[in-house]
Amino acid sequence: MMRSSPWTVRATALAGAFAGCMLTGLAATPAQADGSGSATLDAAVKRGQLLCGMAGQVPGFSLPDSQGVMRGLDADTCRAVTAATLGDAAKVKFVPTTTQNRFTALQSGEVDLLSRSTTWTLGREGNLGLMFAWVNYYDGTGFLVKKSSGVKAAKDMDGATICVQPGTSTELAIADYYRLHNMKFTPILIQDLTEIQGAFLSGRCDAYSTDASALATFRFSQGPKADDLQLLPDIISKEPLGVMVRKGDDKWFDVVRWTFAAMIVAEEKGITQANVDTFMDSKDPDIRRLLGLEGEMGKALGLDPKFAYHVIKAVGNLGEMWDRNITPMGVPRGINNIWTKGGLQYAPPMR
Amino acid sequence: MPATLADPRTSGARKAPKRRMRLSWSDPTFRSIVWQIVIVGLVVGIVWYLVDNTNRNLAARRIATGFGFLGRVAGIPIGESPISYSSASDTYGRALWIGVLNTLKVAGIGIVLATLLGTLVGIGRLSSNWLMARLTGFYVEVIRDIPLLLQLLFWYTMLQGLPVPKQSWRIGDAVFLSNRGIKVPYLIWENAHNWASVALLCGAIGTFVWSRRARAQQEATGLRPAVWPVALGLMGALPLAVWAALGAPMAFELPVLRGFNFQGGGTVSPEYFALLLGLVLYTAGYIAEIVRSGIQAIAIGQWEAAGALGLRRGAILRHIVLPQALRVVIPPMTSQYLNLTKNSSLAVAIGYQDVVSIANTTLNQTGQAVEGIAVIMAVFLTISLSISLFMNWYNARIALVGR
């Protein structure tokens, strides 16, 4: 039986008040603000910061350099969207996520944008309440083996042990591939990227499998030992790596999508980070609309009229982003080029 | 609690007179009932609110819900499984069940080994042998002071440092040790082995019955009939005879290096071995201290009295001190068993596919985080409650009975 005393009364009242506060915090209120029409954008503007989810461990995509500055294609994608929305790429806040908590982080609003080499699939778009705004890298699943193993192609790998991260589309792609070719493999599934890479290097696995881009950059990061490793020529799946946003905030989706379109148009027109200012007196109507000199492109998105100018000033065009982050890893651009150069990156007209 | 220790104010003539409850704030019984209703209502309200809020938000964001995914084909690869599994045709439900079995496999064997090692180390710490006492003391201090996760990573890295399959360490053509694990010959199981197992089970039951009879006879006459010849006959000779009568099949499947790895034979994977090793060594450090404290809790007079009767040190420990220490040791031991089971979820870090690892993959592939976490919680709750129930039963059984 409980004895009631003044203390108990006060404690109960306190507990009630505390629970009340917690619940208010938890309750999700779909804010229809009078701002831009996008709750995510308004929150970011109010915060003065864009929260961008990325890996933080993958060379070429997101990895801090020796000064602690986040570098890579995914990191620059975050910067581009930040420059478009807040006018200043430095206002980005990088939030490290793992392959397993990335979707929850975006669903729960812990990040505004997920730029983490995530494959665009029907299952993810259908089940997660999230959607893909653009593809920043057209990739495919590949295999990295040691040259000493003598393996020349994926077909030679019946019975092999393969290191792969759990919860990725890679593990499904490998299972499908082996099933299709009636072969067997033993998976070694470790969540932590450095652990799984260590397991491969120590010989626990015969092959390490993930997106071919990440394999190439991992091989590159091995320095002089890179020559002991071989990337197999087989690419066994389509892995379009995309940038994700929450469903239910279409204006925010538009912002992210058209940030990419702006970078592609800039590359088409030869506008770069260095020369963008020389285009401010351009006669080309496409360029004038892109840079906010005429039309109301920015306003239609709920952004500054010169949003594209800020993006180009901060990270350059799409090609510059590639050259800065991926070219040093020795990966040719291939299908990731813009459409005028035979690639898949095609922007709808900005008008 | 024996009745003699009960508070005299609650029974007999000194009991307070019974009063009817009044519906007034000044009545303590009424007040406490009101408070309990308020608090239960508050808890129910909060839980209901959280569940409802989650459901509404999931629906608003069109995130898939429900446990329907358990029946869908999984497609995820699984490294080691005690039952057959194919990513092409088996469901998420079966994948998670494999995770549960893998967790039980490491926790069950871990508990047995940690208890054995911990008891030996605990006794060793009290040894009069200087070296023994210091070594075990050093072991306990070092093991308890390093986080378990680091120990697991350490053992896993050490096992990865073993030679590759082609240069593996070997014992004849039967046992191979490489960075792919320990490969051992595998007994090809036949029908005769099933019958021999049945015979062994029957023999064990027979031996148990016989020892009960032996005890009854000892209490009645003071003479105890020998148990061991019966045990040897029923549990040794009988299964062997059954096995021999059915043709004595004994064929082993030897591991053979073919292609990338060994084919055939049984495997202890480095992931499982590192996890088991880490959990056993870590938990044994704590169990050793529990056993030591249990032994030291027995009054020194017990040792002296037994010594005066002419018993040797080993006999005193086995027949007098340890049975009494057991009563002190069981409750803290229960929490160590629970700890070991829960710590097995660190398997994720070194790639052993326990239930947490498979549930994590599942929730990531299906996007159903709430359900995935609920599965993990339900599994650990069930395992932990089972351990607790068993240990509480055992504790009650060996408790000192007040007569």
List keywords for this structure.
heterodimer; A: 351 residues; alpha/beta; D-Maltodextrin-Binding Protein, domain 2; 2 domains; five-stranded mixed β-sheet; 13 helices; 12 strands; globular; B: 403 residues; mainly alpha; MetI-like fold; four-stranded antiparallel β-sheet; two-stranded antiparallel ribbon; 12 helices; 8 strands; 64% helix
Which secondary structure elements does this structure contain, and how are they paired or packed?
The complex is a heterodimer of chains A (351) and B (403).
Chain A: H1 6-26, H2 39-47, E1 50-54, E2 63-64, E3 70-71, H3 73-86, E4 92-96, H4 102-107, E5 113-119, H5 122-127, E6 130-139, E7 141-146, E8 160-164, H6 169-180, E9 185-189, H7 193-201, E10 207-211, H8 212-221, E11 229-231, E12 239-246, H9 250-268, H10 285-290, H11 297-301, H12 307-315, H13 318-325
Parallel strand pairs in A: 1-4, 1-5, 8-9, 8-10
Antiparallel strand pairs in A: 2-3, 5-12, 6-12, 7-10, 7-11
Helix pairs in contact in A: 3-9, 3-12, 9-12
Chain B: H1 28-60, H2 92-125, H3 130-145, H4 148-160, E1 169-171, E2 175-178, E3 181-184, E4 186-187, H5 191-221, H6 228-245, E5 252-253, E6 256-258, E7 261-263, E8 266-268, H7 270-296, H8 300-308, H9 313-343, H10 347-350, H11 355-366, H12 369-398
Antiparallel strand pairs in B: 1-2, 2-3, 3-8, 4-5, 6-7
Provide a descriptive summary of the structure in words.
The complex is a heterodimer of chains A (351) and B (403). Chain A folds into two domains: 39-138 and 240-341, Periplasmic binding protein-like II (D-Maltodextrin-Binding Protein, domain 2, 3-Layer(aba) Sandwich), CATH 3.40.190; 141-237, D-Maltodextrin-Binding Protein, domain 2 (3-Layer(aba) Sandwich). Chain A has helices at residues 6-26, 39-47, 73-86, 102-107, 122-127, 169-180, 193-201, 212-221, 250-268, 285-290, 297-301, 307-315, 318-325, and strands at residues 50-54, 63-64, 70-71, 92-96, 113-119, 130-139, 141-146, 160-164, 185-189, 207-211, 229-231, 239-246. Chain A has 351 residues and is of the alpha/beta class. Chain A has 13 helices and twelve strands. Chain B is mainly alpha-helical. Among the domains of chain B are: 27-63; 92-148 and 271-398, MetI-like (MetI-like fold, Orthogonal Bundle), CATH 1.10.3720.10; 191-245. Chain B is built from twelve helices and eight strands. Chain B has helices at 28-60, 92-125, 130-145, 148-160, 191-221, 228-245, 270-296, 300-308, 313-343, 347-350, 355-366, 369-398, and strands at residues 169-171, 175-178, 181-184, 186-187, 252-253, 256-258, 261-263, 266-268. In chain B, the strands form three sheets. In chain B, strands 1-2-3-8 form a four-stranded antiparallel β-sheet. In chain B, helix 9 (313-343) packs antiparallel against helix 12 and helix 11 runs antiparallel to helix 12 (369-398). Chain B is globular, with a radius of gyration of 28 Å. The N and C termini of chain B lie close together (11 Å). The mean pLDDT of chain B is 88.
